[in-house]
Amino acid sequence: MQYKLKPYPHQLKALDLAEAHRDVGLLWEMGAGKTGGVINILRTKYAKKGRVMRTLILSPLVTLHNWKDEFKIHSYMDENNIHILAGSSAKKLKKFMDWSCNKETGEIDGDYIYITNYESLNSAKLFDLLQAWGPEIIISDEAHYLKNPKAKRTKAAVKLGDKSHHNFILTGTPILNSVKDIFGMFRFLDRGDTFGKNHYVFINTYMQDDNAGWSGKANHFPKLVERPEMYDELTKKIYTKCDRVLKKDVIKDLPPLVKKVHHVELSKNQMKYYKEMERDFITFVQEKEKKKELSGAVVAQLAVTKALRLQQIVTGHVTTEEGEIIYIEDNPRLEEVSRLVDEIVVENGHKCILWCSFRANYRQLGKMCEEKKIEPLFLTGEQNLEQKRDAMDKFNKDKNYPIIIANRRAGGIGINLVAASYSIVYSRNFSLADELQSEARNHRGGSQIHASITKIDLAAPNTVDARVLEALKNKQDISNKIIDIVRSE
After folding, report:
1. DSSP string covering 186-255, please?
2. What is the mean pLDDT of residues 171-187?
3. Phi, psi of 427 (to 5 degrees)
4. Nearest to residue 48, comparing CAs of 20, 86, 19, 81?
5. N or C: fewer beta carbons within 10 Å in the chain?
6. What mean pLDDT value characterizes the chain?
7. What is the pLDDT of residue 489?
8. What are the residue ranges of CATH 3.40.50.10810 in the chain?
């Protein structure tokens, strides 16, 4: 087969794996070339059939156009065979019917590649049309979206996958929190061949209840934990039809990823608000903005809300009980970002990603950039696909845009921001997936243009902020034990 772009050796190895197994999982670290690898697998399947097989690609919304771009890079595919189903359900239905409804017979047919987001599976009408169309190959990109076997989208993907010829899962983070994450993905992947079709049997096999001694009592609450003695069996079964690849092992010239933590103390007001919220679940805020007095009560009814409010305080803003956002005037964290931007961007000419998890941070960081006469780009959940693509293109190609302010969730999956040699995490959430995904946006194939990639985490000592950062690191332990096994063969 003629390759448009020469594959890496591990991508060629994936072709052999797909030749040996009906269904395959590429558990490749973010940035290791999963998309290019599976596109070449598709090309071999199509070549054997002598046509484009009906292919459904399920992917996060923000990555849909990236898939079409990757087909251009790795294949000679006619663009007329590749369709993106984005937008509202009504628009998707119309597009699907325009492309796939045979005008003469009224039947749903057509040998196409459809790229759509997981939420599309929640549309009963579109799901019925997809069933009628009958995809022969289904790819689940960022397959951890299927980790919950009870979720509507997982059930829909499984129903389609049970009738397809080939299924593929792509993810760099197959286990984010516990071994439970594996079942839903594998139930879709191979129709239950590896781990069966019963979720509870899987749980009882690979996990145990630490509170089993209380079973039968009124106050019994199951605490499911992994059974370490089953790790070897679990790993063996996973690797039967899956391949694990780490960037450092396959992209030899990838620049080193340098991680730094900058500890930023809280201001006097931040500390006051923080301690009151931590102790009493409530604090009363008084701040000035453009000589205007702002005040309000910040209340947390639940522990999870309290943790959220504490994280907001350490980044320099609060949300009152009435929903008003008040910015804390004295904010050392924002001052530290300003200093770093001067050093990294203004003085040394590097491009930088400013990662954040709260909408209020967009204004804080945007205003800081404007004061430096820098026009920032934004990558947020409020933007549509075209706006996101425009921001990515400008950031990667236009030297006049050295900073992009990106939400960790909206910009952390399937996005290529390799123009940046630096990233600064201004605020974070509790998601390990968001942590790992965002980290890989500028440390991946293509980042060889830089001598190194530097990630700077800002954290307030002795606060929930620092504890969340530590917890996100520790959550990787289970994945390390089961998935990230170095194999010599």
Report:
1. HHHHHTTTTT-S-HHHHHHHHEEETTGGGTTSTT----EEE-GGGHHHHHHHHTTSEEEE-HHHH-TTPP
2. 86
3. -145, 155
4. 19
5. C
6. 87
7. 34
8. 9-250
User: 129-162 pLDDT, tens per residue?
Assistant: 999 999 999 999 999 999 999 999 999 999 999 9
How far is residue 20 from each of residues 24, 200, 212, 240, measured CA to CA in Å? Answer: 9, 30, 42, 10
Architecture per CATH, 9-250: 3-Layer(aba) Sandwich (3.40)
Nearest 5°: the CA angle 349, 351, 356 is 135
For 442, the 3-state DSSP assignment is coil
Is the separation of the CB atoms in 277 and 283 below 8 Å? yes
Residues of the chain with CATH 3.40.50.300: 257-264+332-482
Q: Which two tokens stand for residue 6?
A: 């020469």
pLDDT tens by residue, 68-94:
889 999 999 998 999 999 876 788 888
- Helix H or strand E encompassing 47: helix 34-49
Contact 59, 142 (CB under 8 A): yes
> DSSP string of 294-328?
EEEEEE-SSHHHHHHHHHHHHHTEEE-TTS-EEE-
Percentage of residues in the chain having pLDDT higher than 70: 90
181 closest CA partner among 238, 232, 117, 137: 238
CATH of region 257-264+332-482? 3.40.50.300
pLDDT attached to residue 256: 86
Q: Is 9 exposed, middle or buried (0-12, 13-18, 19+ CB in 10 A)?
A: exposed
State the CB neighbour count (10 A cutoff) for residue 127: 18
Q: Which run of H or E residues covers position 24?
A: strand 24-28
Per residue in 53-64, pLDDT (tens digit) is 999 999 988 788
258 sits in which H/E element: strand 257-263
Q: What average pLDDT score do residues 102-113 get?
A: 86
